[in-house]
Structures are given as structure tokens and as C-alpha cells.
Specification:
Helix 7 (about 260-265) packs parallel to helix 13 (about 400-420) and helix 16 (about 475-490) packs parallel to helix 18. The protein is about 35% helix and about 25% strand. By secondary structure, it is of the alpha/beta class. It starts with a strand and ends in an 18-residue tail after the last helix. Bound molecules: 2-deoxy-2-amino glucitol-6-phosphate (AGP). The site of 2-deoxy-2-amino glucitol-6-phosphate has 15 residues, from helix 9.
């Protein structure tokens, strides 16, 4: 997804901008560019290739103390050098980088063209440069203040003006922007990873903020030009945490970080003595908890699968009906939301546009919203008001791994919390569940210890061109997630099914050797799963079973077994999901795919 960077200070501006853009590569992009205020005016350099290519185009002698940069992920107009940001006005005085969508850009563009403006790109962004140009007399801030009310949709933009060389201006509405505070140098970015190398001091802009960066500091106004104050925060992630730490890929590193991320997510939240989960972040009084009539979980992609696991857990441990909705569907069909509805918005990035829009919609309709996210200060976290942070640390690989298992863990904690508060589970039962959750990091480690076994199995099947994944009950969403993981990073067609659905259609896909990954760990549906496995084997397909360590009989039914520790009904799906992450990873490596940055995908999907 698009990334914005900006720098003002005495450092090497081009170096800082290019380095910061490199840190945002993980978000996915198709082109990149920078604009600098140089002695002779504005210098704009763009490339429709990777950032290394952009770097080759930047003369080493180029000096500037102010600049902005951008990585673009096309939404309006194809990926090309012309459509790459920064975009300029007719006079070439102004340069803008933008993230988001200006929904009324065509209308604005037509009006501007009638007034003589000449557009060079197909982007919605370019209208911002021309509008500011039109509103500019001698004060850039005033021109921006006159421009923003005309823009409908979402935007985070940064702007420089050659006639106002000592400033960067930035505005935010529904798209993230964060300022980095250094000593005599200031940074601007879509996320903190871009400037963590230089400073850990940050200020998160709010919707409706304009930031004015100069060498002397940063000031903020609202969209009416009234001065406002914003709080500084210290970011705890260091850059090393965002680097690969010796693993071949971020994804593999992140898979192996799960014992730690699982420990962090439960840390300080489980009270085994009282059998209580400490989740005050939910922000509900006891009366409000008693008054919950339904839970709707809203999410996209992997987070949606975590939500499905959460539904089973909530229905097992509470008396509340739960539905799980895909963000892009829910945002247009939320009429059943109202008081008594608890909305749980799951999003590791906290910036997924469809989930964010669903949150806003639900709040408008009077629902209580709780966000579960990994990103402090993200749009969804701030809009929801009540946020449970996953504490997973940065996840750079586009494929979500450690954030999935943390989301599931938060859903489990929420289910226990609500079950206890509504009197649906005893303290004794809760204590057992909490001790199971506490054992999760240790179990996760023993799954990871078999990484090389999983790699061997992956190598056996890496040439297949179709995979099916099946599971039942809690393992059904794990099957969906296993299939999503494999398809997104290996480009092999894979689909997940509820095992009981096989005979209603998918069996037709099975012929000799088609690999079916069956999650067949010990659970109340184990016997049903083994019947499904027999159905599959009867069609001569190959079965790779994920099974419990102590299950000696399964080996006779299937082609290959990957073991997970014997664990409870709630814990074992998390362990199976780690096996499937490793499996997808190793298949993708065998296929020579760019694991961390799969084609056509972005880490953070901030447009609809
Ligand atoms: C998962 O591997 C994908 N990258 C994708 O499905 C992702 O989970 C989805 O875009 C939702 O992202 P979020 O959790 O940041 O909202």
C-alpha cells in the first residue's frame, strides 16, 4: 500500500528519504518517487521500478534540506512513472505525495481543467497540487486550509513548495501519518518503521490535523487553522526488531517469533488464581456486559479467519450469539447493529479500509466497538476507542503469521472474560483454560522445533498445482487460513473446506495424487474427520494429516503425518496453524517465490 515519507533537517535528505522508503517496501508498491527543495527549485525524481532503481537515478551531488517521498500502489491510473508520486501543479512550484482516495477528484479535475489547469497524470492525487496552486497567494498553510474542505474521501498527504523552502506540510483524514522528532531534524511517514533508525520519538497525527514541519520543530493546526497540541510518544520497537535477524525471510522469522509473541499477548492478562482474564480494554461495565445481545466480529483476510475461530470459542464459553462478517460486506449491510451489539474489529494493521469503515458505521449506529490490533495509534484503534493490542511486534512479511495466532489468543481471552462475567463458566473451568493458554508458547516452540520435518513434507508436494485443506469445528477456519497462506505466497491454487462439505462438491476435484491437508488432531470431531479422510483416500488423493502426537492409528490412514503436541481443543488449532504456516513457507521457497512480497498483494490494504 502507498507509503509516505518526509524529511527536514541538516542530514543527507536524499539518503534519509530513500532509506525510509526502503523501510516501507514491505507495504507493497509498484512505483516510487521523491521531491526535493533544492537551490534551483524543486527536483522531482520518479521510477516505475523498485527503490534500488530510483536510487540509481538520484545524483549523488544533489543537496537539499527538505524533501518528501512516496511508494505507490496503484488505485487510479496504471502503475507508471507518470502516475508515480510526487505530483506537481502547473507552475512546478508545488509537489504532493498522497495516500488514500479522493472520491470527488473527477469533478474537481473537470472544474480545474475548465479554469486552465493542465494535468499530467491519471491520478486522483494531482488535484491536490492544482487546488493548492490555485489557492496559493503567499501562504502555503492558508492554501492548504482552503483546499482540504474540497476533498472528499480519505487522504494523508505531504506537500512542499519551492517558494516556501523551509517547511513540509502534511494533512490527515482517514489515512495514517506519523511525525518523527529528532534533534534538529524531523521526519514524516505513513508508519514509524520508516524513521525508527533515526528516532523513536513520534507524534501520531489525528484525523483533521495539519502538521507544519520546519527545522525548528513541528506545529499542528486543525482544518480551520486553529493551533492544536499533539502528544509525543516513545516507540518501543527498535529497528533490529524489524529486520530479519538471520532468517532467510521475514515470514520465517515471524513464524519463529511465535513463542515470544504468544507470551507477550497473554502477559499480565491472565489471573490463574482467581480464574479471571484482565481485559479492561474492552471498556464495558458489568451491566453492559449483561446487556450484550449479540457479537459481530468484523475483519478481512487472515483476520477474518481468526474471527471465525473466535466465534467458535465465544459460542463454546458464553451464551452470546456470534456472527463473523467480512469488512467489505459488513460496511454496506450493518442495519442490524445497535445498542446491545458488541462489534469486535480484528485487524493486525489497524488500517484496513473496509474494517475501518465498518467500525465507523457501527459506532454511528450505537454499537460498542472493541478493536483487536497490533498497531498502536492506528486508525481502527483510535476510532474504536476500546482497543486490545496484540503486542506481536512488527510483522513485515505480507503474509500474516504471528499476528494470526495472537488474534486467536485474544479472541480466546475475550471468550473466557465474557464467559466468566456472564456466569457461563466457573472459576475452576476458567483456571484450566488459563493454564492451557499459558502453555501455548511452550507448545508453539515444540511445533517450531520440527521445522525441518515440515520442510521435508513441503518438498514432497511442492510441485502440485492444487491443494485442498480440510478441518472441522475450530479446525475449519484453520483449514481456510492454511489454504490462504499457501495460495498467497506460492501462487498454487488452494482452497479450504469444512470437511463435512467435501461430498457436496469439492470431492469432484479429487483425482490420483491431489494433495489434501487434513487437520485431524484429537477433538470431539476427530472420528468424523477420520471418516472424511477415508472418503478422500477412496478417490486416490494424497492426505497430509496434521495429527496429535499420541495418535498412533492415523498413520495407517494417510500418506504423511505432521505431528503437533497433544493439547486441548482450543490450543491445538493454534498449533496446527503454525504447522500450516511453515508448510506454506517451505512450498513457496521450493517454488522460488518472493515469500515476503507476493505479487499483487500489499501488507496494509488502506483502500476499499
Ligand atoms: C494475510 O496473510 C493477508 N496479508 C491479508 O489477508 C490480511 O490478513 C488482510 O488484508 C487483513 O489485514 P489486517 O489484519 O491488517 O486488517
Amino acid at each position: 500500500m502507498c507509503g509516505i515519507v518526509g524529511y527536514i533537517g541538516a542530514g543527507k535528505t536524499t539518503e534519509v528519504l530513500l532509506d525510509s522508503l526502503g523501510r516501507l517496501e514491505y507495504r507493497g508498491y509498484d512505483s516510487a518517487g521523491i521531491a526535493l527543495v533544492c537551490e534551483d527549485g524543486l527536483e522531482v525524481i520518479k521510477s516505475a521500478e523498485r527503490i534500488v532503481k530510483l536510487r540509481e537515478k538520484v545524483p549523488s551531488t544533489l543537496y537539499a534540506s527538505v524533501g518528501i517521498g512516496h511508494t505507490r500502489w496503484a488505485t487510479h491510473g496504471k502503475p507508471s512513472k507518470t502516475n508515480a508520486h510526487p505530483h506537481q501543479d502547473c507552475s512546478g512550484r508545488i509537489a504532493v505525495v498522497h495516500n488514500g482516495i479522493i472520491e470527488n477528484y473527477q469533478e474537481i479535475k473537470r472544474a480545474l481543467e475548465k479554469r486552465g489547469h493542465v494535468f499530467t497524470s491519471e491520478t486522483d492525487t494531482e488535484v491536490i497540487s492544482h487546488l493548492v496552486e490555485e489557492n496559493y497567494v503567499d501562504n502555503t498553510l492558508r492554501a492548504i486550509l482552503a483546499t482540504v474542505p474540497k476533498l472528499q474521501g480519505s487522504f494523508a498527504f505531504a506537500l512542499i513548495n519551492k517558494d516556501d523552502p523551509g517547511h513540509i506540510y502534511a494533512a490527515r483524514k482517514d489515512s495514517p501519518l506519523v511525525i518523527g522528532l529528532g534533534e534538529g531534524q524531523y521526519f514524516l511517514a505513513s508508519d514509524v518503521t520508516a524513521f525508527l533508525k533515526y528516532t523513536k520519538r513520534a507524534v501520531f497525527m489525528e484525523d483533521g490535523d495539519i502538521a507544519i514541519l520546519s527545522k525548528d520543530g513541528v506545529t499542528f493546526t486543525d482544518f480551520h487553522g486553529r493551533e492544536i497540541k499533539r502528544k509525543e510518544r516513545v516507540i518501543e520497537w527498535d529497528l533490529e526488531a524489524a529486520e530479519k535477524a538471520g532468517y532467510d525471510h521475514f515470514m520465517l522469522k515471524e513464524i519463529h517469533e511465535q513463542p515470544k509473541s504468544l507470551k507477550d499477548v497473554i502477559s499480565g492478562r491472565l489471573n490463574e488464581l482467581s480464574g479471571e482474564v484482565e481485559l479492561g480494554e474492552i471498556g464495558l461495565t458489568q451491566d453492559e456486559i449483561n446487556g450484550i445481545r449479540r457479537v459481530i466480529i468484523v475483519a478481512c483476510g487472515t483476520s477474518y479467519h481468526a474471527g471465525l475461530v473466535g466465534k467458535y470459542a465465544l459460542e463454546m464459553l458464553t451464551d452470546i450469539p456470534v456472527t463473523v462478517e467480512i469488512g467489505s460486506e459488513f460496511r454496506y449491510s450493518s442495519s442490524r447493529v445497535g445498542p446491545g451489539t458488541l462489534i469486535v474489529a480484528l485487524s493486525q494493521s489497524g488500517e484496513t479500509a473496509d474494517t475501518a469503515a465498518s467500525v465507523r458505521e457501527a459506532i454511528k449506529k450505537g454499537a460498542h466497538v472493541v478493536a483487536i490490533t497490533n498497531t498502536v495509534g492506528s486508525t481502527i484503534a483510535r476510532d474504536a476507542g476500546n482497543t486490545i493490542y496484540m503486542r506481536s511486534g512488527p510483522e513485515i512479511g505480507v503474509a500474516a503469521t504471528k499476528t494470526f495466532t495472537s488474534q486467536v489468543t485474544v479472541m480466546y481471552m475475550m471468550a473466557i472474560f465474557l464467559g466468566r462475567r456472564r456466569g457461563m463458566i466457573t472459576a475452576e473451568k476458567a483456571r484450566i483454560l488459563l493454564s492451557e493458554l499459558k502453555s501455548l508458547p511452550k507448545y508453539a516452540q515444540s511445533v517450531l522445533d520440527q521445522d525441518s520435518n515440515v520442510a521435508n513434507v513441503a518438498r514432497l508436494y511442492a510441485k502440485a498445482n492444487l491443494f485442498l485443506f480440510v478441518g472441522r469445528h475450530l479446525n475449519y477456519p484453520i483449514a481456510l487460513e492454511g489454504a490462504l497462506k499457501l495460495k498467497e505466497i506460492s501462487y498454487i491454487f488452494s482452497e479450504g473446506f469444512a470437511a463435512g462439505e467435501l461430498k457436496h462438491g469439492p470431492l469432484a476435484l479429487l483425482t490420483t495424487g491431489v494433495p489434501v491437508v487434513a487437520i485431524a488432531t484429537r477433538s470431539p470431531t476427530y472420528e468424523k474427520m477420520t471418516s472424511n479422510i477415508k472418503e478422500i483416500k477412496a478417490r486416490d488423493a494424497s492426505v497430509i494429516a496434521v495429527a496429535s502426537e499420541s495418535d498412533e492409528s492415523i498413520a495407517q490412514l494417510v500418506d504423511v503425518v505432521i505431528r503437533v503436541p497433544d493439547a486441548s481443543e482450543l490450543i491445538s488449532p493454534v498449533l496446527s496453524s503454525i504447522v500450516l504456516q511453515l508448510f506454506a513457507y517451505h512450498v513457496a521457497v521450493c517454488a522460488g517465490c518472493p515469500v515476503d512480497k507476493p505479487r499483487n498483494l500489499a501488507k496494509s490494504v488502506t483502500v476499499e
